[in-house]
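Extended Data, panel c. Modelled sequence:
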Amino acid sequence: MPPLDRSLLDDLRRTPRLAELAAHPFDFDLRRAEHGEAVRLASGASLEGIAGDDSGGTYFLCGGGGVLYADSEGQAGLIAESLADAMELVAGLPGWRDHLYLPPALGADQLRAAALEVEDGMRASYAPELDARRDELLAGLGLAVRSRAELFARMHRALLRSEPDHLLLLADEGHAYALLDPHPRPPLMETVLAQCRADLARLRADPSAWPESAFSTVSGGSDPEHDANSGRRAGVLRALQYDRHDADLPLLRHLLEQETLCRRAAAFGGMGEELHLAVFLVARHLREEDLPRLHAARCANFDTWCALSDLPLGGPGQSEEDLRLEPEALRAWADTHDTSECFGDDPRSEPPETWVTLARRQGRTELARTALIRLLDDVRPSDTAELPWIAAEFVALADFQQASRAQRLYAKLQDTGLARASAYSRLSALERQAGDLDGAWTSLEHALTVLDGPRDVEPGPSQPVLFEVEPAPVVDDWRDKGVALALTEEHFLLARSAADSGRPDLAHRALLAGMALLDTLDRASPALYGAAHAAARACGDGELSARYEYLLAEEEQRLAEFPYDLDDND
């Protein structure tokens, strides 16, 4: 909490007369600081309830500054940038809650009339000394008397900053409060594209800044985060997609070359949408001198070779020596990609994941998180195909609680036993990473119930009534499928996490269950024996640890001697 806010709050708490004035008639009651339900900020910043009102609403001080108000109907919003601003608001515009729906550009005369209507009602019913008490409270706190217009404008500026940094969530369920006011915000697309266009404008104006978008290896980073500049380059390419000029060809060539280096260095290959976009933007210029660049992009890795196999670059072998420009064929290829389904020039045709992913890759974590939470809260049966990428984006944000929420719903909606069990196994991993070890154990039990039939399992969190879920059929031959390996490994990983967290009973249960599953497998991979060894060691079972260490070494030796064993299904 900023020092000035803390000092002002201390003054209120230490001075009964000031606390009394704040509570009556301005309905800022320090005795009502307890909110009706556990809440938290999505960003993880601190949140302290400091006062409440007679309607069940609560005023919170946010870490880093700002006062958030949450009502009793599931709405919340930032109403002031500091506690001083909040006290000036509640005293100087005591009907502020009645003014939330007034348009921000309301004229001074209309605002004065609306404010007087509320204040006159207060004077007539219970606060005849409203003005004198206002002056006494503000003077006692060392605050100024502000005009209604200034207070109204400040409140609206704060309200428009409620998201993304002050999104209020139910602490356990993870659902978000609705916005406190009805005023429109810029769509995510516009907010993200503004940054993309700003980066593009800089590169257009100053070629010496191009190295800022160059491929730059990040040691240990996962794809595409092995490249420090991949996010900025992706944004610039998107801006170029929607704002096309012939003069940008040198910049496009630079970006294509960097994307080619990025895909060539990716640990697991992959096409990468940005490489495909860069190829399209360069190819549509139909320049012969670009053929080697396009060929290099196609040859970046196995996946790019397959994905760009239809790119017309010349002779039958299409080696670098065979390259020749075929304008009509290349134009036709570009035209097939110049559509809303591929790389059209209208950003409004892009799906939400485009902007969420770009926001995250631009480093705008809370913007991406807020958009994802809103999407998840609003999901409908027709949207359930979106749940896997929503969960994956939460994982990329390291928000495993929200990822678990998306995956939990997805798991319950799978209509085959294998799919549902696999989804529950993935859910267990996410819950484990979120620190919900009991939930992770329950999800593993759910997966085994789906595969083997009913058992005594505690029910997990329920899905919305909106979703009617049919039981999944029991699977008879699941132990020879990949789900068996995933479930077995996840038991060992949970055992290790439970042991490290001081949960020996849960660790022992998970270890024993993992061992029982492992004994049913025809053959385990070195990774599975490694997980078993680590779990046994974490649980303090030296004999079992030594056994799995021996089996691990034996399996690694077997693979070293017979790396292409046709009987090895792993």
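Confidence is low (pLDDT under 50) at residues 456-467, 566-570. This feature is highlighted in the accompanying rendering.
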